[in-house]
Design a protein that fits this description.
By secondary structure, the protein is an alpha+beta fold. The chain has helices at 3-32, 35-62, 74-87, 120-125, 128-143, 146-173, 179-218, 222-238, 241-250, 265-272, 281-289, 295-302, 309-318; strands at residues 65-67, 93-97, 104-109, 113-119. It is globular and about 65 Å long.
């Protein structure tokens, strides 16, 4: 996917989310009045805003994340510093997460500042040049303000989710005369919630492609390095299948932040099982790329925060 086409797709998806939300929100207001709905929406927005502001502290606690200085890890700190200059952004705080999966994530808020974190397992699993490509990807999320954009996009389906439950509970337990209309609005709002959620997931996948392209532009030979990094991350996660359910579920709360989705560990195992016996990282990438994408893969991808690994690696090869 070309860079211009990717940007237009992102803008189009956001425009659709806003337009559809505004349309249905206006219809609901015209049917039931403004006061209660506006109050409910205000509460939902306020809740998500507070969650966004304090989320970095929650992430630090859940994933045992600690800030490091140049003295703690000169190599990692230097990578972030160099690539931040190339990306023309202010250097974020450098963090290391003590969780047993190879992954990385960018996050932050106005009160916590911007942060880039890598896991200890990632540093042990990848070569230095591959870690560099992963950092380039995460800096892309910060440069493109993906945390803010995804927070805004996620509020839209959340509004209709709470509208749906509010009207259904009101109809069932409130003794309303217009309970039929309330149930109808509740069901319609839940349908809208699911539709918008699918588009939010699609936007998340587009942002991952966009961050991949950013890494390619600021990291020398970034396409090869990031391809090998992603292949090794997925391969490592696949080989953890025997304990993936327990471990992956523990990291699902903020999995959209990760460079690769740990929830896919079981599904990735089925895809990766036949990729044993490779002798080089390049061979691993080529074996993954050669895999045929089935209809089931396409359907599963619709419900994922991250692109299908085969499609993602193919896109990286085209951008080299």
């Amino acid at each position: 996917m070309g860079l211009l086409k990717l940007r237009l797709s992102i803008i189009g998806t956001l425009a659709f989310l806003i337009g559809l939300s505004t349309l249905f929100f206006t219809i609901i207001l015209s049917l039931v009045g403004t006061l209660n709905i506006v109050l409910l929406v205000s509460l939902v927005v306020a809740f998500n805003l507070v969650q966004w502001l304090i989320a970095p502290y929650m992430i630090d606690a859940m994933y045992r994340v600690k800030a490091i200085s140049r003295n703690d890890n000169p190599k990692l700190y230097g990578m972030v510093e160099k690539l931040s200059r190339r990306a023309n952004i202010k250097m974020p705080k450098v963090m290391i997460a003590k969780i047993p999966i190879p992954n990385a994530f960018a996050y932050g808020s106005p009160i916590a500042g911007r942060r880039v974190a890598v896991t200890e397992t990632l540093l042990k699993t990848l070569e230095d040049e591959e870690v560099e490509a992963v950092i380039g990807h995460e800096l892309g999320h910060l440069k493109h303000r993906d945390v803010q954009i995804m927070m805004f996009a996620s509020v839209l389906p959340a509004i209709f989710y709470f509208i749906a439950y509010s009207f259904m509970l009101s109809a069932w337990f409130g003794g309303r005369r217009d309970s039929g209309l309330a149930i109808l609005i509740g069901i319609a709002s839940m349908v809208i919630y699911w539709i918008l959620s699918l588009f939010v997931l699609g936007l998340s996948r587009l942002r991952e492609y966009y961050a991949d392209r950013h890494s390619v532009t600021i990291v020398d030979d970034g396409s090869r390095k990031l391809s090998e990094a992603l292949a090794k991350i997925v391969n490592y996660s696949a080989n953890m299948k025997y304990r993936s359910h327990q471990q992956a579920s523990a990291f699902n709360s903020f999995r959209s932040l990760f460079i690769a989705d740990p929830e896919r560990a079981d599904r990735d195992y089925q895809e990766m099982a036949r990729f044993s016996g490779y002798s080089t990282d390049r061979q691993l990438v080529e074996k993954i790329i050669s895999r045929k994408i089935t209809r089931a893969d396409k359907i599963l991808e619709l419900f994922s925060t991250h692109p299908n690994i085969v499609k993602r690696l193919r896109a990286l090869q085209r951008s080299s």
